[in-house]
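From the pipeline queue, job 12 of 40. The input is one protein chain; the requested action is below.

Action: predict structure.
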Amino acid sequence: MTNDQPHRRFGADFVAQQESRYGHRRPEGRPLSYDLAVEDEYEPWREWLDVQLALLPDKDADTYARNLWKDQNFWSDHIELAAGEALRASGFHVEYERLWGTKTPDWTVLDDGQPVALVEVVTHSPSKELNGRMKAWHNLVERVKEIPVPVVLTVAGPTDHPLNPPDARTAKKIAQDLRRYLLSPLHQVQFASQGYIFLLMADPQTGTTMRAPGMRTILSPPSGMAGVVSAQPLVARIEEKVSKYRAVAKGAGLPLIVAAGADKFTGLGIEQLDCLLTGTPTVTVQFNFGDTFIHNPIEFQPDNPPRWTMPPDLSGVLWLGNEFPFAATWRANAQAQTPAPERLTGVWKP
């Protein structure tokens, strides 16, 4: 698809509208998806979205177009669309939110007009509270980035509870204080501002001040996501979906598939799902320099790792990656009461 083709939702006009609406704002006042919406390097991504929406009824495409660039919808909408694309790759057709009694699974897979599978989509995402905290820290990060001193800062925080981010007014004052500190002739390694303590980071190998790339200050704030990365919350939601749709699938005599993916910020990938499916004693921990509090610590027992067995009503899990172009990977349920069509699963990498 090229820019001169008609009916593009996210072509040159869309980019111009986004730039007009948000370009004049400070970076911290823009949606987190702003760069994806306007930068040339993401044009293939926007073209992909145009293709996906063109395959939907106008009403549904309009709803997606209004909502998918919002921070709270971005990853869930993308995973949902990626699931539709993966299902079409098999040569079947798909219908979005077809009504089955009183329920509407996300996708109904069709062969010659006849349903052959039902697919519901789940996306593992940070909570609304955590999203708000991360965006508030992002506000400060963007303000600090304007200081023309190439150093890396972090924030001193407690180890027993999350460090609350500053509000917008406080963030502005902090940035002003840090600018004054960093541009002064005094060589400080610790800076106090508005009740927060900021630390100048050193290179762990040389012990000298860490130099930020470019000529701007980088702040590494608490991510709020520090801790063990586990697929257990995701599979709990998968089981909820199975519970909700098993009667529909059974009544129609169709296999039930759950397509799953994760917001990038969660750190969750198919590796963690596989560890849970096989009971592999592996632990993945994510954190960055600004994390002092580890959320929900999990007691790990190497000789008794957690393991998940897919319920028999579930034909399998279709995993969608969160890197464009969203590769699909199939994990079959060997004990499924109704296996998915072989032709459907054969196009997804095992």
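Job complete. The longest helix spans residues 232-252.
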